[in-house]
């Protein structure tokens, strides 16, 4: 084991941790070492995504929009779409220890994020059934909800207590993302107690390995799913299972797609889509990793920001692509380092959490399209 991990901390964790059987020590050592060594290294060169390559739904004719809508509804009516919700985080920044989706965001109706999204799925199901000849046949949209060890029980109980917001209980599948140990800045394990290593969720990019390890990719295939709509829980404006977006995705025949919103101003704290090199894939660069000059660069002809396509975590993938990327990202040992205050035997320790992001998958995609939604 690398000295980066701290011999005494490691020995305590192996001998005493009640969860020691879940610690893949060679993998954890590789992640710690590779992630720390990559910190501060120069990244690849980036090019802006050409505006002409981004589709804007509002700029299409009514007939074209209707055609895409109908194509998406048809696929939904055939059971080809599954929805994946990324919901492993707690609402601590909202002043709550509950899962984010339970949070009352102050609407007059008092509806939570979970309820708004469930009702959207219910409505799309009904529209899809009405679009086919046998309108009495309701094909459910299966909703896969990724929790974490910190939110799983509360999320399940919340849905059960609200009778699944009108959806059938068997169309909602809960599964947990993984966790990774938290470490100090020099790579030593942080102990939550004298006998337990402090851990944290492995980021929303933990989705891929979680889908693979829980056999849910096979479950989707068995149900006839071909397309997977993935989104983050904390977007109140999300159009879950958007037929127009799905129709456009199917029309283009690509492996991946993302909805984007034009960046409002240079300092806005959002990641943006860029092209890696002259001919590389589309990827996302976090705002914290962008050079200020790059963030402020203006297109001389249009007057718009050159790097302007904000990632808002609204993605579509083919199931075939998810199967491929689940293995690729599982073998990727470089994780994002997030500096956080971590509960420890010392009360609180400033350390590092290791996270993968769902947008890391785009680097593996042979073809990605961006679909602009104007606010």
Automatic annotation (TrEMBL):
<protein>
    <submittedName>
        <fullName>UDP-N-acetylglucosamine diphosphorylase protein</fullName>
        <ecNumber>2.7.7.23</ecNumber>
    </submittedName>
</protein>
<keyword id="KW-0808">Transferase</keyword>
<keyword id="KW-0548">Nucleotidyltransferase</keyword>
């Amino acid at each position: 084991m690398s000295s980066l991990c701290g011999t005494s901390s490691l020995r305590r964790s192996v001998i005493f941790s009640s969860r020691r059987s879940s610690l893949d020590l060679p993998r954890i050592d590789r992640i710690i070492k590779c992630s720390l060594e990559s910190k501060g290294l120069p990244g690849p060169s980036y090019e802006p995504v050409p505006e002409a390559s981004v589709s804007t739904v509002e700029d299409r004719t009514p007939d074209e929009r209707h055609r895409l809508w109908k194509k998406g509804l048809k696929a939904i009516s055939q059971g080809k779409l599954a929805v994946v919700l990324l919901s492993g985080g707690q609402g601590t920044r909202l002043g709550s220890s509950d899962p984010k989706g339970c949070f009352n965001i102050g609407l007059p109706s008092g509806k939570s994020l979970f309820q708004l999204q469930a009702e959207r799925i219910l409505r799309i199901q009904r529209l899809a059934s009405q679009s086919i000849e046998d309108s009495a046949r309701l094909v459910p949209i299966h909703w896969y909800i990724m929790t974490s060890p910190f939110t799983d029980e509360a999320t399940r109980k919340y849905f059960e207590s609200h009778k699944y917001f009108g959806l059938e209980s068997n169309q909602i599948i809960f599964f947990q993302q993984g966790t990774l140990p938290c470490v100090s800045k020099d790579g030593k394990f942080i102990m939550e107690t004298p006998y337990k290593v402090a851990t944290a969720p492995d980021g929303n990019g933990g989705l891929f390995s979680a889908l693979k390890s829980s056999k849910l990719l096979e479950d989707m295939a068995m149900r006839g799913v071909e397309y997977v709509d993935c989104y983050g829980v904390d977007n109140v404006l999300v159009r879950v299972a958007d037929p127009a977006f799905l129709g456009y995705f199917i029309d283009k025949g690509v492996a991946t797609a993302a909805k984007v919103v034009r960046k409002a101003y240079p300092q806005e704290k959002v990641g943006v889509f860029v092209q890696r090199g002259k001919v590389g894939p589309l990827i996302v660069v976090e705002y914290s990793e962008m050079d200020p000059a790059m963030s402020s660069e203006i297109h001389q002809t249009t007057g718009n920001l050159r790097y302007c396509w904000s990632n808002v975590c609204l993605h579509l993938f083919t199931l075939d692509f998810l199967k491929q990327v689940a293995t690729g990202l599982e073998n990727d040992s470089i994780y994002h380092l997030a500096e956080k205050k971590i509960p420890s035997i010392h009360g609180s320790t400033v350390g590092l959490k290791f996270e993968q992001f769902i947008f890391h998958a785009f680097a593996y995609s042979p073809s990605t399209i961006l679909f602009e939604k104007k606010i």
